[in-house]
Design goal:
By secondary structure, the chain is mainly alpha-helical. It has one domain. Helices cover about 40% and strands about 5% of the residues. The protein is built from nine helices and six strands; from the N terminus they run ββββαβααααβαααα. Strands 1-2 form a two-stranded antiparallel sheet. A two-stranded antiparallel ribbon has the order 3-4. A two-stranded parallel ribbon has the order 5-6. β3 and β4 form a beta hairpin. The termini are far apart. The relative contact order is 0.16. It comes from Ottowia thiooxydans.
Length: about 280
């Protein structure tokens, strides 16, 4: 990815997951993570809107239907939110967003408590067999994710955090990976046209409703996955376990088939049956 004239390329550090991996070597230096690792078009277009290709415009990925569409690209570039950290340039994502709805105090308190614990995602297993099964899953998913995340350490850290947060929220890990593929194409700094952020495209209002009010934290990997998984769990509980309706609510398109069908199709790539 080219940098703006007169400005060196920027790199992002990997200290996003709130703790080292269990098997990371002590004293290992932070790895540089460039934004170009997770390229690829988004898998899902909002209802009524065609899929759009991504192109580069002075270091920012913007949506474009053709190379000649210069004015619209400039307008989109100017509309990208300014982040608290000026060196983090968000990538655009096209997705719907959760809708802010009335919430009783007990539900708000439960959600706030669910996201408050920031312990690092280090899995604990009851047996050696369970640990070996997890390592087989991790190896298989790492191979499948290689095209999106080339760096091994970054890929393992991401998968371990997804596994931990999805299990913690009592969600199917393959469904969460399918949702991330549809929502952000596995891009940490993705920003949708409605302002949803990060891997799971969490709307900023959630940080005010159940967090500390800082939407910038939604670009932190574990924070984004923690919010996204608990929000999806909340919607599943509201819809009494109806995955179709809960996924629609997550996307702000409750009752419409496009988004749930897209997530279900993407989920099939991440389903794993242990051969052991």
């Amino acid at each position: 990815m080219s940098a703006a004239p007169g400005r060196p390329k920027q790199a992002f550090t990997k200290g996003e997951a709130g703790g080292d991996l269990e098997f990371a070597a002590p004293g290992r230096p932070k790895q540089a993570l460039t934004k170009g690792e997770a390229g690829g078009d988004l898998e899902f277009a909002a209802p009524g809107r065609p899929k759009q290709a991504l192109t580069e415009c002075e270091g920012v990925k913007v949506a474009a239907t053709s190379r000649a569409d210069g004015p619209s690209r400039r307008r989109l570039l100017l509309s990208v939110p300014v982040l608290a950290a000026p060196w983090v340039v968000p990538e655009t994502a096209w997705a719907g967003g959760q809708l802010e709805e009335p919430m009783i105090d007990s539900v708000r308190t439960a959600l706030s408590s669910a996201i408050a614990n920031t312990a690092p995602p280090v899995p604990v297993f009851s047996s050696t067999a369970a640990r070996l099964a997890y390592l087989r899953w991790l190896s298989a998913m790492s191979d499948r994710l290689f095209g999106r995340k080339k760096d091994f350490s970054t890929r393992i850290e991401f998968l371990q955090t997804v596994w931990y947060e999805s299990r913690r929220a009592r969600l199917d890990t393959s469904m969460v990976l399918g949702l991330i593929q549809v929502e952000s194409a596995f891009r940490k700094y993705a920003v949708s046209s409605v302002g949803a952020r990060g891997y799971m495209q969490v709307m900023p209002f959630w940080t005010r409703v159940i967090g500390d009010g800082d939407p910038g934290k939604l670009f932190h990997m574990q924070t984004n996955l923690r919010f996204g998984c608990n929000i999806l769990r909340h919607y599943l509980d509201r819809e009494r376990g109806d995955t179709f309706m809960a996924l629609g609510r997550y996307n702000g398109s409750r009752g419409k088939p496009q988004y749930p069908n897209a997530v279900t199709a993407a989920q099939s790539r991440w389903i794993w049956n242990d051969p052991a």
